[in-house]
């Protein structure tokens, strides 16, 4: 018979690799969550440099750039909406990483009192407990990243495309346009 240890987030109950130990939190979450957005930021910056060059050439030629500028504004806006919650999430994970050992020592001291076994003597300033608000911020930031990504997809054109698709499924559009039935 094998014993399977489940590691889940303390507050949400969701399985979470960061709850194994401090090492797994760093290796499987913090390092990738710092490296990949950094690489993405470099590509984003390179893309903006290219778009500004294209815009400059277009303006020099006398071509209208309003659509390109709207696209640049949209990319910048949604990049900010994506990057800010990502940074908040990583900051919350760093908070856990740096305080994890102290929290575990404090929890072990509390448990030995509960089970009436000898406890190590408490040290000065040992009352370090996790901040509930930071954990809630972590959950909000992790959800906001996905919400922001989905908002990019739901533009007016996307909604119109889905309306047309639904009309085709119901057979309405083919008859209204006089197309093939």
TrEMBL record:
Q: What is its main location?
A: membrane
Q: Which residues form the signal peptide?
A: none
Q: What Gene3D superfamilies does UniProt report for this protein, alphabetically?
A: Rhodopsin 7-helix transmembrane proteins
Query: What's an example of a GO molecular-function annotation for this chain?
Result: Wnt receptor activity
Which GO cellular component term is one of those annotated?
plasma membrane
Membrane-related topology note: Multi-pass membrane protein
Q: Where in the cell is it found?
A: Membrane
Q: Where are the transmembrane segments?
A: 26-54, 75-98, 132-154
Q: Which domain of life is it from?
A: Eukaryota
Per UniProt, residues of the G-protein coupled receptors family 2 profile domain are: 1-161
Q: Which Pfam families match?
A: Frizzled
* InterPro entries in the cross-refs: Frizzled/SFRP (IPR015526), Frizzled/Smoothened_7TM (IPR000539), GPCR_2-like_7TM (IPR017981)
UniProt-listed GO biological process terms: canonical Wnt signaling pathway; non-canonical Wnt signaling pathway
Instruction: Keywords in alphabetical order, please.
Output: Developmental protein, Membrane, Receptor, Transmembrane, Transmembrane helix
Protein family per UniProt: Belongs to the G-protein coupled receptor Fz/Smo family.
What protein am I looking at? Answer: Frizzled-realted
> What organism does the UniProt record list as the source?
Anopheles darlingi (Mosquito)
């Amino acid at each position: 018979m094998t014993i399977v240890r489940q590691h889940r987030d303390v507050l949400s109950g969701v399985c979470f690799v960061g709850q194994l130990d401090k090492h797994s939190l760093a290796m499987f979450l913090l390092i990738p969550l710092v490296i990949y957005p950094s690489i993405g930021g470099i590509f984003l910056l390179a893309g903006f440099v290219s778009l500004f060059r294209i815009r400059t050439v277009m303006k020099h030629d006398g071509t209208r750039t309003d659509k390109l500028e709207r696209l640049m504004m949209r990319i910048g806006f949604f990049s900010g909406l994506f990057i800010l919650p990502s940074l908040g999430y990583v900051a919350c994970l760093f908070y856990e990483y740096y305080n994890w050992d102290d929290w575990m020592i404090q929890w072990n001291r509390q448990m030995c009192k509960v089970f009436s076994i000898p406890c190590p003597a408490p040290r000065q300033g040992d009352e370090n407990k996790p901040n509930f608000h930071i954990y809630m911020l972590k959950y909000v930031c992790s959800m906001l990243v996905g919400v922001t990504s989905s908002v990019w997809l739901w533009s007016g054109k996307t909604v119109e495309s889905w309306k047309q698709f639904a009309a085709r499924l119901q057979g309405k559009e083919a008859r209204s346009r006089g197309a093939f039935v």
